[in-house]
Design goal:
The complex is a heterodimer of chains A (317) and B (945).
Chain A: H1 4-8, H2 21-34, E1 53-58, E2 64-69, H3 81-85, E3 91-99, E4 102-107, H4 124-141, E5 145-148, E6 156-157, H5 160-168, E7 193-200, H6 206-219, E8 222-229, H7 231-235, E9 242-246, E10 258-261, H8 264-288, E11 292-297, H9 303-316
Parallel strand pairs in A: 4-5, 4-7, 7-8, 8-11
Antiparallel strand pairs in A: 1-3, 2-3, 5-6, 9-10
Chain B: H1 2-9, E1 11-13, H2 25-34, E2 40-44, H3 47-50, H4 65-82, E3 85-87, E4 99-103, H5 113-129, E5 134-144, E6 147-157, H6 159-168, H7 178-185, E7 193-197, H8 206-217, E8 221-225, E9 231-233, E10 236-238, E11 243-250, E12 257-264, E13 275-280, E14 285-290, H9 291-297, E15 299-302, E16 305-311, H10 314-317, E17 320-325, E18 334-336, E19 346-349, H11 363-372, E20 378-380, H12 382-386, E21 394-397, H13 405-416, E22 420-424, H14 427-431, E23 441-447, E24 482-486, E25 497-501, E26 507-514, E27 517-522, H15 537-564, E28 567-573, E29 579-580, E30 605-609, E31 619-621, E32 641-643, E33 651-652, H16 654-675, H17 681-701, H18 716-721, E34 724-727, H19 733-753, E35 760-763, E36 777-780, H20 792-804, E37 809-812, H21 826-835, E38 843-845, E39 873-875, E40 887-890, H22 894-902, H23 908-926, H24 931-934, H25 936-944
Parallel strand pairs in B: 4-5, 4-7, 7-8, 8-32, 19-20, 19-21, 21-22, 22-27, 34-35, 34-36, 36-37, 37-40
Antiparallel strand pairs in B: 1-3, 3-33, 5-6, 9-10, 11-12, 12-16, 13-14, 13-17, 15-16, 17-18, 23-24, 25-26, 26-27, 28-29, 28-30, 30-31, 38-39
Helix pairs in contact in B: 2-4, 4-16, 5-6, 7-8, 16-17, 19-22, 22-23
Classes of the chains: A alpha/beta (317), B alpha/beta (945).
Chain lengths: 317, 945
């Protein structure tokens, strides 16, 4: 089962993840080079001011946005006298808010992300890190500020290698009991974040995701959801008697809930049905909140998801 | 099928009750079937979807049948191993009752002794297991304190007691006493079986041995066990027939040396290493000759008796102390030479300085040359001749006038004590009134030429047969011109004999015995003045006969002495033919008991008159002289089974079975690991690694058959990083194989005992392979140059460079020679050819305080290998060029000794050989560093002051 990710981007097969920030950035840069221009939603390729981006709302900026009737509290300097002279009302001239946009990145810190079903596959976390790093590169290229949201620390931003290092050194789940029950999704959203890319396996209940999408919509944040799954999770290829342990539940392996299947092949159909139901619930939630859901299996080439991302943004534009 | 059951019948179980556990295997079968293998455990992120999967019926997963079989096999193997099976190769004991082990430990058993004792111990163990008492009996009598000699007998014994008793027994250097052995058998319980361990050639006559066997048969079954392997040489086991030195004489004709009667079967396979050797008192080899060559050139006297000889220069003759045959242990292959053989101490009067060139008409010149043909003559004045200690045996006086009175008295005493005085006539004697002549002589000579000549010069008449000069050849062309005549009218004061006469009946040689000696007059000149006697070979042979007179007389006198007083042993031979000091309580051989047959009361050895302390008076009792050549056992009494111990070791199967079980366990482990793969790959890798580690350890310790033959040289970076022991291959596979085994044994010893851990043993060919990596190169010589060796120029250049940069070569000629003997062995010749042009410093015998003897172990200065007695040569005084000796030359075949001790042989000499090997490597590695400590006592003393 050759993995596109590992064959193309991991330094060697048999390696479960990236060893250093440089390796991660190198792989991500190669991946980002495959993406066409305008991958990120809302980009304006002909923008004369690199780094500025119209926010499609009133605010500080150079370009005209709209006239608005004067309200008490408005500054007199903002009154457009020429427009006001044409009618009885006094109008305020508003400009379109242009400025650097924050592209937020989030990687699921859950223990389940460390899963890989075969020695020649990367961990799911590695794929997540690669995509998020590639997005960070693209965002910086188009003048946005990539911001890495972290579960236990303030958001990281700045140079790309710092970001990549922070991405690699996200707290490893399971090493402290206090972090065991960590949410797979960010709990707080930075105000003004216009785009949030969430990389996760989304194997938690779909209701949690739907609630999260609702919060984001209220904050005005677009969501790009990257669902990364291991082929074993998609196809359930197990045979015989296997004891399954909940890897996400708790750090204490002895107390983790277990379930024993006498014949896995008999339970495969039930599993696949449940997975399909879960996936469609996720899609429904995304559709309801105008979020975009992209899927990636760790045994497929990562370029696929990049092209999917291109189509997504072009279609959106 | 029958072979299989035969093999099965040779397996005995020491704890058979453990085999009952095999009955539990079916139970284990069911138990294992119901216990499924542990399920795999997977930490699964999508666990949530499985949480409410409807449960499927829980069927117990079956263990695969082959895994089940594997585990059952494993359990069975462990049980089998615990029951301690022993593979025996020999036939089981027969009958019931006591087991009598009879060891034929007489004269010819030495080569077979290790094999015989091993077999005896094996039989004892087998009897011990069967709960049967063991009696141990020897066929040869041995002396017992306070009692008459009798064969050894003890019992009933347990197996450890038998082993302990075997340690105290050894081959005896005399014939067996079957009568006494049969008598002592009467005292042991009858029944059971008797195991007679005997060499293929039992001592005594075949008839007496057969009678002995018949006697044994009256008591129970008899098995005759004759070892098949007696001697290990180059890994090859061959039996040598017994070799006896039946008699030795000084060679009378045709050069100097010894004439030796060898009792040996005509047999073509005597290896080159079996050789006839003459040793001196210190054990140095004076002369050597391969036995097969000696026998081939010898004269057959009777079946299995050859008269042959060994040549050696006259000046070495007087140092000869014993003649031996290497490679054939036993008292019969050693012949001790006593005073009768250390003869030919001659001297002649020469008033001039010895170095002065002599004229051809000088009589002393002819006497000296003639004596030098068979002795090492001393030239000097009367004082020098008579003050020798031990006194000379023959003094030759050329024409002399009246002797001084004191000289005359001393000469008379000397003759009475056994000297032979030979005088030649001449003008001076003719002019004087001679004394000390056998017959009165007339003054004035008789001249055949000259004014008063009576006729022509006279020839020598045929010599009478009773004369000591009888049958002397070569005097036909001698013409005597002038002579001195005896005076028949003068008073006759003793029986003088005319030993040789001229044609007309006038005496040429007259002699007379006086006391223990004799005086002889040759009635003509020693030089060419009066006759041409001195130009003839007759002259030399005549003098040789004269010299022989002393020896013959001495023999007669010894017998008289033995009859008069007791003889006490000075050195005795043991059963292996080694000289030992006699036990302190040894009784002197009294005239009655001195039947001069080797036996417990008078073992072969060197005896001395009780009243004398000088070693000039010792006489030897030799085993080979008194026994006839043994007969090979051909016919046995009916009912006696004949066995040969094959591989006479019992092989315990415990270790192989346990190792197999361990191996199966590892396989089981891997299989189980594969079935229940762990969740993460890291842990799997860890387990796999530990698994591999154990397999590697297992494979390392499993005995691996090393392919024989010379391996190619490892790459230089490997050679440089480790210490390798190197040797120069001879091109002969057996020798190289043995050398490699020996060096491997030495490497193991070094690793065990010292911090030197050699990485291996490699063959190197100087001139082809790089030498600079090796601190020491062991070079065994075999006398046959390797045909595909590089040219000698290339080799010489390589060796020169190697030695110049601090290398060390250890030559081993493997023939126990290396004396300054004129007879260079083939190995020595090869050594000369190799070392020629290497620019070596002068060599000396390694002194006892050489660093080589204390670089690791403190050695006594004697470094035996397979052989002993040859010196070890190292560089002389350490100069700046070579602070450490660049070459060491020895002759003891140390690699053979190391290989032998690695095979499990043990002896004090082998231990010394091993220690010498360690010292050698240490010396090569540390140089003279240890030499400092030689001066440590002095340094300490100075510090304390």
């Amino acid at each position: 089962m050759p993995s596109g990710l590992s064959s193309l981007l991991l330094p060697s097969k048999r390696q479960s993840g990236y060893r250093s920030a440089a390796a991660l950035l190198d792989a991500a840069a190669r991946l980002a080079a495959r993406a066409g221009p305008g991958v990120l939603p809302g980009i304006r390729p002909d923008s004369p001011y690199p780094g500025t981006r119209p926010r499609k709302r009133a605010g500080p900026g150079a370009d005209f946005w709209q006239f608005r009737p004067y309200q008490s509290g408005d500054r007199p300097q903002d009154i457009d006298w020429r427009r006001s002279a044409r009618s009885d009302q006094v109008f305020i001239r508003q400009r379109e808010w242009t400025g650097t946009r924050h592209v937020c990145l989030w990687c699921d810190p859950g223990a389940g992300m460390a899963f890989r079903s075969a020695g020649n596959l990367p961990e799911k976390r590695a794929a997540a890190q690669l995509f998020l790093a590639a997005l960070a590169i693209l965002a910086q290229k188009s003048g946005d500020i990539p911001v890495l949201l972290r579960p236990d620390a303030p958001p990281a931003k700045g140079r790309l290698d710092d970001l990549a290092a922070a991405l690699l050194h996200l707290p490893i789940p399971g090493d402290a009991p206090a972090r065991a029950m960590r949410s797979p999704l960010p709990e707080t959203l930075p105000p003004g974040a216009s785009l949030l890319a969430v990389a996760s396996d989304f194997l938690f209940p779909p209701e949690t995701f739907r609630d999260f999408l609702g919060r984001c919509a209220r904050n005005g944040t677009h969501i790009l959801a990257l669902q990364i799954l291991d082929p074993a999770e998609i196809r359930f290829p197990f045979r015989g008697r296997v004891v399954f342990e909940d890897s996400a539940a708790t750090a204490d392996a002895a107390a983790a809930p277990r379930i024993e299947l006498a014949r896995c092949e008999d339970s495969r159909a039930a599993y696949l049905a449940r997975l399909a139901a879960h996936q469609s619930a996720l899609e429904d939630a995304c559709a309801a909140h105008d979020a975009r859901l992209l899927r990636h299996a760790t045994d497929t080439p990562p370029e696929d998801i990049m092209s999917a991302l291109c189509h997504f943004t072009q279609g959106k534009a | 099928m029958s072979a299989f059951s035969a093999a099965l019948s040779q397996i005995t179980f020491l704890s058979p009750w453990v085999l009952l556990g095999l009955a539990g295997l079916p139970a284990l079968w069911f138990l294992l079937r119901t216990l499924p293998p542990r399920p795999r455990l997977i930490r699964f992120p999508a666990w949530r979807f499985l949480n409410d999967v409807p449960p499927t019926p829980k069927t117990a997963a079956r263990m695969p049948w082959w895994l089940l079989l594997l585990r059952l096999l494993l359990a069975a193997l462990v049980l089998l191993a615990l029951s301690q099976p022993v593979l025996r190769q020999a036939a089981p004991l027969s009958g019931s009752g006591p087991v009598r082990i009879v060891l034929e430990n007489s004269l010819f058993s030495a080569p077979f002794w290790p094999s015989m004792t091993r077999e005896a111990a094996r039989i004892a163990r087998a009897a011990d297991r069967a709960g049967r008492p063991v009696y141990l009996l020897t066929s040869a009598a041995q002396s017992r304190p306070g009692q008459d000699p009798a064969p050894y007998l003890s019992g009933p014994l347990s197996a450890p007691e038998v082993s302990a008793a075997l340690e105290t027994l050894s081959p005896r250097p005399w014939l067996p006493d079957y009568e006494a052995a049969a008598q002592s058998l009467e005292r042991i319980p009858h029944g059971g079986e008797s195991d007679v361990l005997s060499p293929p050639y039992p001592g005594g006559s075949a008839e007496s041995f057969t009678r002995f066997l018949e006697k044994l048969q009256e008591q129970g079954d008899v098995k005759l066990v004759t070892p098949s392997a007696g001697r290990h040489d180059a890994g090859e086991a061959i039996i040598l027939p017994p070799v006896l030195i039946r008699g030795v004489r000084i060679k009378r004709e045709g050069g100097t040396g010894f004439e030796i009667d060898i009792g040996a079967e005509r047999w073509n396979r005597f290896p080159e290493s079996v050789s006839l050797r003459v040793y001196d008192h210190a054990g140095d080899v004076l002369a050597a000759r391969p036995l097969i060559e000696a026998i081939d050139s010898g004269k057959p006297l009777s079946p299995a008796l050859y008269r042959t000889g060994i040549d050696m220069p006259a000046r070495f003759m007087r140092d000869a102390a014993r003649i031996g045959i290497t490679g054939v242990p036993g008292a019969g292959s050693v012949f001790l030479l006593d005073r009768r053989f250390r003869t030919y101490r001659t001297g002649y009067l020469s008033l001039e300085a010895e170095s002065a060139p002599r004229d051809l008409d000088e009589p002393a010149h002819y006497i000296g040359s003639a004596l030098a043909a068979f002795s090492d003559p001393l030239a000097g004045d009367y004082e020098a001749l008579l003050s020798q200690d031990p006194p000379l045996q023959m003094i030759v006086l050329p024409d002399s006038g009246r002797l001084p009175d004191d000289v005359q008295a001393r000469l008379t005493r000397w003759i009475e004590g056994g000297g032979v005085l030979v005088r030649f006539a001449g003008p001076k004697m003719a002019a004087s009134e001679p004394v000390l002549v056998p017959v009165p002589v007339r003054t004035g000579g008789r001249f055949s030429e000259g004014a008063f000549s009576q006729g022509t010069p006279l020839a020598i008449a045929p010599i009478p047969s009773q004369s000591p000069l009888a049958a002397l050849e070569g005097g036909k062309d001698v013409r005597v011109r002038n002579q001195i005549l005896s005076d028949p009218l003068a008073g006759d004061d003793g029986p003088a004999q005319s030993w040789a006469t001229l044609e007309d009946g006038t005496p040429l040689v007259t002699g007379r015995f006086s006391g223990q000696g004799s005086f002889i007059l040759v009635h003509t000149t020693a030089g060419p003045g009066w006759s041409d006697l001195c130009l003839s070979g007759f002259y030399v042979e005549m003098l040789r006969r004269f010299a022989g007179l002393t020896a013959q007389e001495a023999q007669a006198i010894d017998k008289n002495h033995a009859a008069a007083a007791g003889l006490r042993p000075v050195q005795i031979l043991d059963g292996y033919g080694r000289l030992q000091p006699p036990p302190a309580d040894f009784l002197p051989v009294t005239p009655e008991s001195a039947a001069l047959i080797p036996g417990p009361k008078s073992p072969p050895g060197r005896y001395r008159d009780q009243n004398r302390s000088d070693d000039g008076a010792d006489s030897a009792l030799n085993a080979g002289k008194h026994i006839s050549y043994p007969e090979k056992l051909e016919r046995l009494p009916r009912g006696v089974t004949r066995l040969t111990p094959g591989d006479d070791r019992e092989a315990s199967l415990f270790a192989p079975l346990m190792l197999t079980a361990l191996f199966l366990f590892l396989i089981d482990w891997i299989v189980t690991l594969w079935i229940t793969r762990p969740a993460t790959s890291v842990r799997a890798a860890g387990r796999l690694l530990s698994c591999l580690f154990f397999i590697c350890v297992f494979l390392l310790f499993a005995p691996l058959a090393r392919p024989a033959g010379a391996a190619s040289l490892p790459p230089p970076e490997e050679l440089a990083g480790e210490i390798y022991l190197a040797y120069v291959p001879s091109g002969r596979a057996d020798l190289d194989n043995r050398t490699e085994r020996g060096l491997n044994a030495l490497a193991g010893l070094l690793a065990a005992r010292t911090s030197v851990e050699p990485a291996g043993v490699v063959p190197v060919v100087p001139g082809r392979d790089p030498l600079s990596f090796f601190p020491l190169i062991y070079w065994p010589l075999d006398g046959r140059p390797d045909s595909d060796a590089p040219s000698s120029a290339a080799r010489r250049a390589a060796l020169r460079a190697y030695l110049a940069y601090g290398g060390m070569i250890f030559f081993d000629t493997r023939d126990a020679s290396l004396q300054d003997s004129p007879v260079a062995s083939a190995q020595v010749r090869e050594l000369r050819e190799i070392t020629n042009g290497l620019g070596l410093p002068p060599l000396v015998r390694a002194p006892k305080d050489h660093v080589l003897f204390r670089s690791y172990y403190l050695l006594p200065g004697r470094v035996p290998g397979l052989y002993d007695g040859a010196p070890l040569w190292t560089a002389g005084k350490s100069d700046d060029a070579y602070p450490v000796s660049p070459v060491i030359i020895g002759a003891h075949d140390w690699a053979g000794a190391w290989a032998l001790s690695a095979q499990g042989s043990q002896s004090a000499d082998l231990i010394l050989a091993e220690r010498f090997g360690v010292n050698l490597v240490m010396y090569a590695l540390t140089g003279n560093y240890k030499a400092d400590q030689i001066h440590l006592p002095k340094i300490l003393e100075r510090l304390g002051r």
